[in-house]
Amino acid sequence: MIAPAPAAATTCGGGAAVTAIAGAGAVALSSGSTIPATGSCTVTVNVTAAIGGSYINTLNIGALATSNGNNAGPAIATLTVVSPVLPPTLGKAFGPATINAGGVSTLTITLSNPDAAVATLSSALTDTLPGGVVIAPVPAAATTCGGGAAVTAIAGAGAVVLSSGSTIPATGSCTVTVNVTAAVGGTYINTLNIGALATSNGSNAAAAIATLTVPAIAITTLTTQASFGVTLGGAISDTATLSGGTAPTGAITFNLYGPNDALCSGAAIFTTPVAVNGNGNYSSAPFTPVAIGTYRWVANYGGDTNNAATTNGCNALNESVGVTAVMPIAAAGIPTLSEWAMIMLAAFLVITGFAAMRRQAR
Length: 362
Hints:
- By secondary structure, the chain is mostly beta strands.
- 6% of the residues lie in helices and 38% in strands.
- It contains one helix and 31 strands.
- The strands form eleven sheets. Strands 24, 26, 27, 29, 30 and 31 form a six-stranded mixed beta sheet that branches. Strands 9, 10, 13, 14 and 18 form a five-stranded antiparallel beta sheet that branches. A three-stranded antiparallel beta sheet has the order 12-16-15, with no helix packed on it.
- 23% of the residues are buried.
- The mean pLDDT is 93.
């Protein structure tokens, strides 16, 4: 078709004019135009094609009609349009994007190839991690890229490398994954710059950026489970599981509230602190209630320099214990004879005595 800027022109005489409208499919030289004797003239115009391929343009026999006759042979020209190569793109993400200090996140780098031809890395792809972030003790580095792709990721190092010669499938993608960690809290921005991915199809035109957040203080959680209900005289206790901490220390305090304190608003009737040494399970000392009712445990972790405090709160799930009264044992009654039994016994004694008297009389 005619290009957006046709720049149509002619060297023909006789007031020759060229008609060429941008986007149209034809160019016309006006009737009455002249071609010099024993000479030539030209018509020029800019054309374009949006899709790759070979385009054959033909002016058939007789297309040029003049006072000297018509052209006896066709005029043919071929335009070859090469499809542009679509360059690859890069993406990346941390999963999870937020970890505690010393925790582990998986960095995933995604290499995408929109072109119909396989993209081959012409140089190694190197992702340099931000300061403070390093390859985890267990890197678990892997890739789905082809061409004998290999990933280099050494525990404690600050970079991960995908080998030169690795391939990205046509109109597809592949990934590089590796575990990373950070010992100190902060916000870490990891960037693969423009041009970092160099392939046979070109380089990435946009940077790939991912952010890893490490809170300055670890967010801890408590999961609790009180003992089962008992009768008076039995002991009750509570167990808390501390998790999410970074080598937590300090103490978990178990507070017990009596049956007349449904909101745990009064003073605890029993308090027992337990020293903490890392994430794990911690149990309170036992307590023996002296009254029936529902008792409520509340566990509090006080935190430390690197770990946030946390509590499960009053009436938390599995933190209520029922204490019931001891069922009295009924005294065994002394059996008594009914009136009919007494009559039958008396009759038996009378008959027995009468029989004995008759035997004596004989």
